[in-house]
User: Fold these one by one.
Assistant:
Number 1:
Amino acid sequence: MGDPSARHPRHNKAEVFAQLRYAHAREVTEDYVEMIADLIEEEGEARSVALAERFGVTAATVNNTIKRLERDGFVTSRPYRSIFLTDQGKELAEKCRKRHEIVYNFLIALGVDPAIAEFDAEGIEHHVSEETLAAFSKFSGN
Amino acid sequence: MGDPSARHPRHNKAEVFAQLRYAHAREVTEDYVEMIADLIEEEGEARSVALAERFGVTAATVNNTIKRLERDGFVTSRPYRSIFLTDQGKELAEKCRKRHEIVYNFLIALGVDPAIAEFDAEGIEHHVSEETLAAFSKFSGN
DNA sequence: TTTTAAAGTTAGTCAAGGCTAAATTGATTT
DNA sequence: AAATCAATTTAGCCTTGACTAACTTTAAAA
């Protein structure tokens, strides 16, 4: 039968799934930096309590996640103070905001109901490549 | 200010995120039942070693996941034997297969490169509502 | 200024989903 | 029949992301 690695050429999906696992780890980070940016814009600052309310999780969970985001260089925080985005965090938040908007507008252009478009965009946005995003953008006329 | 629940009507996203967290738990299940169905069709049976190879994880990880799937009623398995889908598992696999196809065909119809479409479909499929799926289906002419 | 309430933190627990290393089982060779 | 090899299982560990309960800090009211 020859080289085993050539036996199932159409099924070498391992890399796809590996990247999907990595992608999931990024989703929470992206949701947080987006939400923090929203809060800073809308309320002037990002407090744990607001994040907890909007994500529907406890304050303890927010605390854990913020620590991880800080470790990974996306935010800065000091005990009992509000949360700030680093330059890296701001950059990611802005990228996510644009991407979210493109996905949402695309679904609207497709004729999807706004409420459903908002919900689906939240899930889809993390899994759209640059190429597909460009196709979405082109379809809805930028 | 009245009812606090009406104060931020555009920001009651907690439910959206709660559903997304639930959705993630379903993704692995869906990927596994889909892959098991593929293996049974293509190779006559679904063995742990094949799942491990295709997902790019170790056999131990497959073992854990299969136990969870069995607990949740999607598969049956006996020690050192191959894995079978229950009726519930077959149903989910078939639903996923159809949905995957619709998403993939839709991306192709949009002009996305097949390799990228395949990759993105794998991530997007788990986050598409029935309504959006219908819109995709309609766009690519079924 | 003292008390109280809200916000934030810490400690400990759990499930999912990964891993490695070691043990076991089943199947194939010799 | 015994040895060997591949597949599977088990045990133990890790990280993420959730929780509750208890504690501390900050801010606001009395």
Number 2:
Amino acid sequence: MFDLFFTHINQKVNLSEAEQQEVKTFFAPKKLRKRQYLLQEGEPCKYLVFVEKGVLRSYNVDSKGVEHIIHFAMEGWWMGDIYSFLSGDPSGYNIDAIEDAELLMITLDGFEQMMVKVPRMERYFRILFQNNIISKERRLISSISYTAEEKYLRLVESSPELLQRIPLNLVASYLGITPETLSRIRKKLTQKK
Amino acid sequence: MFDLFFTHINQKVNLSEAEQQEVKTFFAPKKLRKRQYLLQEGEPCKYLVFVEKGVLRSYNVDSKGVEHIIHFAMEGWWMGDIYSFLSGDPSGYNIDAIEDAELLMITLDGFEQMMVKVPRMERYFRILFQNNIISKERRLISSISYTAEEKYLRLVESSPELLQRIPLNLVASYLGITPETLSRIRKKLTQKK
DNA sequence: AAAATGGATTGATCTGGATCAAGACTTTTA
DNA sequence: TAAAAGTCTTGATCCAGATCAATCCATTTT
């Protein structure tokens, strides 16, 4: 259950066997069926979760009722609404499973205790957050500076795994374009080759 | 020189006098004139800087030669290209001063040593990065989900200070719209009132 | 195995915001 | 203090991508 979890953590900080045992105590396992919600808009986000298996997405719904995907999380990724998780305020996001998923969950209390008890986890999260900032910044630049086609090509480049596993209409939402536009872009690109 | 600096840090983690003295040793002061570069595209970002006074911006230039502003940083904010800073790779950003500025700079070596020597600074940056993720996520949602007018209104809401100090053409670039569009939006909004 | 649901494609049309152009006003620079 | 550069506004036109609509398959569900 914790295999992938510690593999990922030990890539960034090296935990002793004792630290691993300590860390384990803060997490609870959870299974989620396809289409099942982990979080619905209006609820506070009570858990930060690590994805052991499956794929989750987070999205918000705009004033016209259109869904906009904020993130995907597949094996080895974290998911949650950090703002709501930390503040306790109601979340503006929905999180659900795109594929059946197995998760490890931690509460805010657990998270804060863990930071104190296992300082190496504080380091792990500092590094994780650094990387998260970098990838959000890349995405923001894509979104502000590039055309729909360029955005798609950057995604192909940076996250080919996503395109293998996620339906194109969801990929389009993630890129901030319509499924029709994405379909036309892909057609154009295959013809070009 | 370090007044604002420690005020900000102590809002998140409380440093003892001894810790403050230790932290100081990792930073060097720097003044920047308006329009002067802190970083130019192609160079590695050697310093993370804290703004004691003035305003900086970071921006990239797209294939058509158009500038896109990634961030502003005024008093009490940090600035740098975190990706380039951490990896040592050449940066794709430019950073320059919009107003004369006074900065405190730290190198990557300094940063990493400081994390070890003053663990409370590791905590400070973990929290800083958390908040940074939250604000980037907000901005990403703005950018993907909202119209130009809604983006502007959200900025008025979340960062009124920015609009006081920064020319509108730069605000437009930050919002990912043209100065003409921003001008028309503002006209429409004042008429509406 | 029939019906319902979800995903992808293609065509026709529409539109928010970009682009191009010009003028007014203000701040720098020489 | 004159000229140049930067900032903001307004008007006319254009276009990338959205919207609306229909069809085709592939999976689920019953």
